[in-house]
Write a structure and sequence with these properties.
Blueprint lengths: L2 E2 L18 E6 L7 E6 L4 E15 L2 E5 L3 E5 L5 E16 L12 E4 L2 H11 L10 H15 L1 E3 L2 E3 L4 H12 L7 H8 L3 H12 L3 H18 L4 H7 L5 H12 L3 H9 L1
Parallel strand pairs: 1-2
Antiparallel strand pairs: 2-7, 3-7, 4-5, 4-6, 4-7, 5-10, 6-8, 8-9
Length: 267
Amino acid sequence: MPIISEPLHATDWVDPDAVSRPVVIYGFVAERFNDIELPPHSHAKGQFILVQGGALTCEVDAGLWIVPPRSAIWIPGGMRHAVRMSGMLEGYNAFVNPALGLGLPPVCCTVSATPLLRELITRGARLPPLYEEGGVNSRLLAVLIDEMAAAKVEDLRLPMPAAPALRRLADAMLANPADRAPLATWAKRAGLSERTLARRIADETGLSFGRWRQRLSIMLAVQWLADGTPIQHVAANLGYESVPSFVTMFRKTLGMAPGRYMAERFG
């Protein structure tokens, strides 16, 4: 398939559901995708988005998924999702016929991509749109699907509140994660009492306010570290006064220091 270097109005874009092949792969490059948002939509085929570099977030089923470099998100066919791309983004989109994706997860999830998986999807993107079936191409894509199904699942989902006032609060925290204001301050900004905000956040996300903000910090930290951001900058961007305090939070949450975590999953 062609390498997409423009937003989805590009002349070389073809709806993957309209291509009569079980697997359709598009590559996309970074420079022209800064701050692009795709509104909620769905595909009949399942969608596997591999991010090689840059920042991609995907909102699916009342949750925000952050996809770090060398990771991917799997979205089952028919599931509505919205995508936001920013920074120097590059990667691949593989659309899979549901009949071939029986070994893939039935729910949306993020996964870490092995070097083999990344090479297979890169090879697959070089195939013509109507590649010949039944031979080496089909074997290549069968191995790709096996690698997609075997990929290690990463818990990088942030449950998002649905109520407008709470969603505005969540969006503000996402836009400025360095703001470490306490619950009382955020409640005042939302026009709610502290107790009401705490209860409503827990009801809508299943997490306490503190745990929700901690999950947000971890997800952004993983994304930034995987993209090569120095740990000092990550800690500062998340509002931590020192690197050791950030590392302590990271270790308590994920069970290991940032360096080891990144080496095991994205090395």
